[in-house]
């Protein structure tokens, strides 16, 4: 019996217009009304998940946020933190010092602000149009902006994650060198073709699921998880039923138990109906 539905956001819960389609929304509302727990599992910070939680009424059903790719898990209704694992201050400083040799935009979320080095000089061509990645990230997650000449000097606290942004071509060419000093110390991964990020060693969506749902008495066999990208791999492998969207990468499809329709054609709702959850 399925007791929890775990959902990635971009490319999974939302369509290409960054919207939850009516059929998918109704399916998830019905599942919650039937007693199934809903969790949003994303690289986004918790502030970036509030919009979707409200739309899905998760704040009325003790829905969970697995944010920062699993570095923090919280009950979106009460604010209770069920799991947290951050980069230490020293680790964060080391990463930020190392990144100074690369043409990337480092980003740290803290409080109501997204902190970076330059809110204007971070535009690159993406799919034939200019994209200011700081504007995109801050607007999508409801953040104010704050600039620092030197993020490494500014950081004097643990950090859930360090996000770096650049054109997909630049990150493909440089991500191995960006990660090289930290391969055995931290978790380093793509979360989009223009995002490469650092979290504490061992942080991933599966670890967060194991700890948080274990506290709630929900076993992995009682979970169904949906995803499409590299940072969803552990989540789909851990859940009793791991479902890849039709638009997922081939690596994700390879580890999934099944493949549903894409994010523009209500793949989540179709799979929930097929499993008799609705």
The CATH top-level class label of the largest domain: Alpha Beta
CATH homology-level superfamily of the largest domain: HAD superfamily/HAD-like
Strand order of the largest sheet: 5-4-3-2-1-14-15-16
Number of domains: 2
User: What radius of gyration results from the CA coordinates?
Assistant: 18 Å
Proportion of helical residues: 25-40%
**CATH level-3 fold name of the largest domain:** Rossmann fold
Molecular structure report:
This protein is of the alpha/beta class. It folds into two domains: 4-85 and 203-274, Rossmann fold (3-Layer(aba) Sandwich), CATH 3.40.50; 89-200, Hypothetical Protein, Haloacid Dehalogenase-like Hydrolase, Chain: A, domain 2 (2-Layer Sandwich). The chain has eleven helices and 16 strands. Strands 5-4-3-2-1-14-15-16 form an eight-stranded mixed β-sheet. It has a six-stranded mixed β-sheet with strand order 10-7-6-11-13-12, with helices on both faces. The longest helix is centred in the first third of the chain and has 12 residues, at 22-33.
List keywords for this structure.
eight-stranded mixed sheet; 32% helix; 2 domains; Hypothetical Protein, Haloacid Dehalogenase-like Hydrolase, Chain: A, domain 2; six-stranded mixed sheet; 278 residues; single chain; alpha/beta; 26% strand; 11 helices; Rossmann fold
């Amino acid at each position: 019996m399925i007791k929890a539905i775990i959902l990635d956001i971009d490319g999974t819960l939302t369509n290409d217009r960054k919207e939850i389609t009516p059929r998918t929304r109704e399916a998830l509302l019905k599942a919650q009304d039937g007693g199934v727990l809903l969790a949003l599992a994303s690289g986004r910070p918790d502030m970036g998940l509030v919009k979707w939680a409200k739309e899905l009424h998760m704040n009325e059903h003790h829905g969970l946020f697995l944010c920062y790719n699993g570095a923090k898990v919280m009950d979106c209704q009460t604010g209770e933190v069920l799991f947290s694992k951050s980069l230490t201050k020293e680790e964060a400083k080391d990463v930020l010092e190392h990144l100074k040799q690369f043409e990337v935009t480092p980003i740290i979320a803290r409080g109501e602000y997204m902190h970076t080095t330059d809110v204007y000089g971070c535009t690159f061509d993406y799919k034939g149009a200019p994209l200011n990645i700081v504007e995109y990230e801050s607007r999508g997650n409801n953040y104010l902006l704050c600039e620092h000449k030197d993020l490494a000097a500014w950081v004097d606290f643990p950090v859930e994650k360090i996000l770096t942004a650049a054109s997909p071509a630049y990150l493909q060419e440089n991500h191995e060198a960006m990660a090289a000093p930290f391969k055995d110390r931290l978790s380093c991964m793509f979360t989009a073709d223009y995002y490469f990020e650092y979290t504490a060693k061992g942080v991933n969506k599966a670890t967060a699921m194991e700890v948080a749902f274990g506290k709630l008495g929900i076993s992995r066999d009682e979970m169904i998880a949906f995803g499409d990208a590299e940072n969803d791999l552990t989540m789909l492998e851990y859940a009793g039923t791991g479902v890849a969207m039709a638009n997922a990468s081939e690596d994700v499809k390879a580890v999934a138990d099944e493949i549903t329709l894409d994010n523009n054609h209500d793949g989540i709702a179709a799979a929930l109906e097929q499993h008799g959850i609705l």
